[in-house]
Amino acid sequence: MDGSDTRYCDINLNNGELIVADRIDRDGLCGEKASCILKQELVLENPLELHRITLHILDVNDNSPQFKEESIGLEIRESADRGARFVIEEAHDADVGQNSVQQYSLKKNDNFILAANGNTIELVLDKELDREKQKELNLLLTALDGGSPQRSGTVVIHVTVLDANDNAPVFSQAVYKASLPENSPLETVVVTVSATDADEGVNGDVTYEFGHVTEDVKKQFTIDRKLGDIKLIGSVDYEMTSSFEIRVKAKDGLGLSSYAKVIISITDVNDNPPVVYLKSLMNPIPEDTTPGTEVGIINVQDRDSESNGQVRCSIQQNVPFKLVPSIKNYYSLVSTGQLDRELVSDYNITISATDEGSPPLSSSKSVQLSVADINDNPPVFEEQSYSAYVSENNKPGSTLCSVSARDPDWRQNGTVIYSLLGGEVNGAPVSSYVSVNGDTGVIHAVRSFDYEQFRSFKVHVMARDNGSPPLSSNVTVSVFISDVNDNSPQILYPGPEGNSFMTELVPKAAHGGSLVSKVIAVDADSGQNAWLSYHIVKSTDPGLFTIGVHSGEIRTQRDISESDSMKQNLIVSVKDNGQPSLSATCSMYLLISDNLAEVPELKDISYDEKNSKLTSYLIIALVCVSTFFLTFIIIILGVRFCRRRKPRLLFDGAVAIPSAYLPPNYADVDGTGTLHSAYNYDAYLTTGSRTSDFKFVSSYNDNTLPADQTLRKSPSDFAEVFGDCDDSPEVGPHAKYGLVSCVQCC
Predict the structure, then answer these.
(1) What average pLDDT is seen over the chain?
(2) How confident is the model at residue 178 (pLDDT cuts 50, 70, 90)?
(3) Which of 242, 299, 685, 686 could form a disulfide with 277 if both were Cys (CB 3.0 to 4.6 A apart)?
(4) What 3-state DSSP class applies to 465?
(5) What letter would DSSP give residue 647?
(6) Distance (Å, rounded) from C-alpha 60 to C-alpha 145?
(7) In percent, how much of the chain has pLDDT > 90?
(8) Beta-ladder partners of 38
(9) pLDDT in tens, 327-365
(10) Ramachandran region of residue 329, left (φ > 0), alpha (ψ -120 to 50) or beta?
């Protein structure tokens, strides 16, 4: 070759053959030239000749196709579209012509095919890459020449799939479920969500946040952006919300996101006591309500669930009510006994409710139940009977006493109205004597009372309530009239001075202590007001006579002497024991003589013009006395025949006055007055006798002397009596003097 120092050929000097002196490498000499000519110069000696030799070097397939590198690296994004072409550097074959690279082949794979066009070799993306499935691919590319034998060369194409943000984060669970006890402490981790992103780098960097949730969720839960921990930041109440459904979002660095659902179930804790509700109540309840009547409806609720919400309801035992279970959680409040408002007017019913939680919780409710009044109680007087004491001569309108009745019923049923029941007192309506205040029960006197007319009477007071129908009760009020010393003593014998002329004969031989006469007086009052005392106020001879302070008997204090004056005049005062004391006086005329004929002065005694009629009056009186005497004897016989009480004969040396002369109101039936009717008697005796010649018992008879009459003792009356005594068989020998002494005692 020209310019080459390398001798590729030699000549055999012997035979002149041109032989190859060194290996001739066409590829090295000519490269890719289609014609490879090796020019040589041949120098001959003797003669010296220069010949040019041209050698055409023919290619021999002694080279295999060869790629520049053993491995070709490609970086292809997984987001590359199908059909994308990636140029591959072709292989080099030192041979030329047919021995050079004729074709390429790509080992079968899922993503690429080979496209060769001339000297251009391209990898065509037949299927999208997925880095998350296969982030690297090794493709074997083979270059083949056309020589014979055929030679080939290979190269490995290392495809690196570059990440594209084509994957959203993926949660490990589509739905997360967790349970959380209510009242759990704050910062409690409820659940941890986890999402992965097949991408890498920023594309695979996942953060967490809540999706669209309510404000309540945001107030109660929070999520850790990096770790995915959902924590409790607010109190949860099973009774408010039993579960929460939270949408959680996982997002990668370039914004792809996915969602998962988190369901948090709140488990119940026995943190709610039962609550008792009063749905209805019949209040007040009538006291005549029959046992078994439903008076109210109770509802019991517990916001807890299951056993925590199972409630037992009860009522205390000391009330006449009970709880009867009805529909779910409802109870009927039913009466169990007879009610009496007067015993218990209000009931404070405590209803207790206890759940079955652990520990159990309980609560109670008080129900105030009032008992309505029914008019079932009549007024009752505080006392079984009442007594009123009033002094006679009281002022009209004065208060006698007060009755009081109580009615345990309420309001108008217990409002008591007082009134008098109809009746009569001494033939007059009771309303003319007393009245009663309808509101207060105070009994007033309508008129002034007189003890001497009547001493007591009874009235009946009715207490009536204002119910419908009204109830009533009665009580007896006994009114006792107490005596007032409003009556002066009345002297029955002798008559008051100036109205009568009474003379007693005193025997000259009378000894000291002899009964001479007796002053008889009565007092219409009673008790101590009628206790009479007798006193000699004035006497002719003060030392000769004395009078019994309580008996009124006039007796001699000493024996009568001749020097004593024949005529003795005594002025006697009769006083009662009232405060102030009332009194009356009378004059007693005594003659000291055994015979009226011995008294010349007697003829000087003046008489009024009526003395002429004394005889006729005495006859009439004697006839009357005899008639009454016979009647009395008949009555005594009848009483004895019937074996009734026998009348007693009283014998006394005292002189007596017929009881028929006493006014009837002076006969004291209860022993408190001056005289007692059982001991009234009449006695007739001869003047001057120390003892009675004849004495008989005479019972009191209203017909003897009317109550409005009194004993009249005048000189004419005595004259008439004296004139009739001559014919009386009962009169002693002194009757001819016309003197009769009459004394009544008890």
Answers:
(1) 80
(2) very high
(3) 299
(4) strand
(5) P
(6) 12
(7) 34
(8) 55
(9) 888 999 999 989 998 889 899 999 999 998 888 999 999
(10) left
User: Nearest CA to 333 among 381, 287, 300, 382?
Assistant: 300
pLDDT bucket at 11, cuts 50 / 70 / 90: confident
Per this entry, what is the length of the chain? 746
Angle at CA of residue 668, ends 662 and 671, nearest 5°: 140
* Tens digits of residue pLDDT in 363-373: 999 999 999 98
pTM across the whole model: 0.48
- Decide if 555 contacts 548 (C-beta within 8 A): yes
**Quick one: pLDDT band at residue 709, thresholds 50, 70, 90?**
very low
Partner residues linked to 583 by β-bridges:
575
The secondary element (H helix, E strand) that includes residue 445 is strand 442-445
Asked if 469 and 378 count as a contact pair (C-beta separation under 8 A), the reply is no
Tell me how far apart the 2 most distant CA atoms of the chain are, in Å: 268
Question: Which has more pLDDT, 194 or 18?
Answer: 194
Rounded to the nearest 10°, the torsion over CA 576, 582, 587, 588 is 0
- Helices assigned H by DSSP within 607-670: 614-641
Other beta carbons less than 10 A from residue 432's beta carbon: 12
Q: What is the DSSP string of 190-247?
A: EEE--EE-SS-GGGG--EEEE-S--HHHHHHEEE-TTT-EEEE-S---TTT-SEEEEE
Please state, in angstroms and rounded to a whole number, the distance separating the CA atoms of residues 426 and 451: 13
With residue 391 as reference, give the H or E element that holds it.
strand 385-391
Cα Rg of the chain, angstroms? 80
Measured at the CA of 329, the angle between CA 328 and CA 331, to 5 degrees, comes to 100
Query: What is the rounded distance in angstroms from the CA atom of residue 205 to the CA atom of residue 102?
Result: 49
**Cβ(161)–Cβ(133) below 8 Å:** no
Q: How far is CA 397 from CA 155, 394, 448, 454, 479, in A?
A: 151, 9, 9, 19, 15
